[in-house]
Structures are given as C-alpha cells and as structure tokens.
Amino acid sequence: MPRAVHLVPPSMSRYRAYLDCLADFDGTAVDGSGISDPQSPPLGEGEVREFMTARLAEEDPATDLPEGWVHCTSRWIVDAGTEEMLGFIATRHRLTPYLLAQGGHIGYSVRPAARREGVATAALEIALAEAQELGIAPVLITCDDDNQASRRTIENAGGDLEDLHEGKRRYWIGDGPRPRA
C-alpha cells in the first residue's frame, strides 16, 4: 500500500524540511523540483525565497516566461501524517519540442530515504488528477530507460509506452490526441 502523501506549494514555512530533503539527494538529480543544477541548489534563505517565488509565479498563465519555458505547477511531496518532505513533483502545462522528446508533462523525484514506500505512486496519482483539472490530456511522462522504479510507477498509473527516444521511455496516460514532434 502506498504511503499517504499530499502535495503542497513551495513555502518558506517548510524551509528546514526543504533543506533536509535536498541533503538526502546529496547532489544528484532532483527532477520535478525546478532546480537546474543539483550540485548548486538554492540553499540560503534569500535564494530559497527567490526560488520559491519563481516556482509559484510559473503557475500563473499571465506570467511572462523565458524562451523555451512553460507554465508549471510545482509541488512538494509531503507525508500526510508526519509532514516530512519526501520529494518534488511538477506538472508542466504544455509541451515544448524538448519536453515532448525528453521531459514530459510531469516530472518527480522522491528523496532516497523514502523510496520503495509508494511515495511516487501516491504523488503521481494526485498530480494526474490535477493535470486533468488543468485540461491536460493525455499526459506524457518520461523516465530513463534504466530507471526500473519509475518505469513501474508510470506503468502502474496506466502509462502506455509509445517509444524509447534517446534513452527516455515515453509513456502516455489518458485519452485524446497525442502531440507529435
């Protein structure tokens, strides 16, 4: 049975939990977080505040974004009982050519200490419902070809494998026309 989680917007009220979660990743990729360089993530209070403000602004369709960026709903995965921060998940509102080939609509990462507990499964289920509310259908989710855990998570959520593209498995969930490159 998956661990009970909820998704919360980034917030300075969880600053310490954010730092603790990032420390667990130990400089490895943090998909779904909006952190572009995991070797140098925002850590100082001012940096983190600016980072969170930017993530929240990306949700607003009225926000002008840099070329190649799309509006995105960023959430933190939190244990429903303990409120421990378990990871990150992001839902991109549309696909660029890069996202169509490599990134997909939803990206996520679960901190190493919380893996194999159904966290990704529970978080993805919530994110898929939120994607539906945003009118995103079908949803593209990708994972590295060698990432067996993410592959199982996506397949258990109903992912239909379209292809393997440059080392990424590309899955669609839901009905509707699939965008093409």
What does this protein look like?
- The protein has 181 residues and is α+β, with helices and mostly antiparallel strands.
- The protein contains five helices and seven strands, in the order βααββαβαβαββ.
- It has helices at residues 15-25, 45-57, 97-103, 119-133, 148-156, and strands spanning 5-8, 72-79, 85-92, 106-110, 139-144, 160-165, 168-173.
- The strands form two sheets. It has a four-stranded antiparallel β-sheet with strand order 1-2-3-4, sandwiched between helices. Strands 5-7-6 form a three-stranded antiparallel β-sheet, with helices on both faces.
- The chain is globular and about 45 Å long.
- It starts with a strand and ends in an 8-residue tail after the last strand.
- 35% of the residues are buried.
Strand order of the largest sheet: 1-2-3-4
**What percentage of amino acids are in beta strands?**
15-25%
Largest sheet: 4 strands, antiparallel
Helix content percent band: 25-40%
Structural class: alpha+beta
Order of helices and strands: EHHEEHEHEHEE
Report low-confidence residues grouped into runs of 5 or more. none
What is the molecular shape?
globular
How many distinct helices? 5
Radius of gyration: 15 Å
| Average pLDDT figure | 95
The count of DSSP E runs of length 2 or more, i.e. the number of strands, is: 7
Ends apart, CA distance between termini: 37 Å
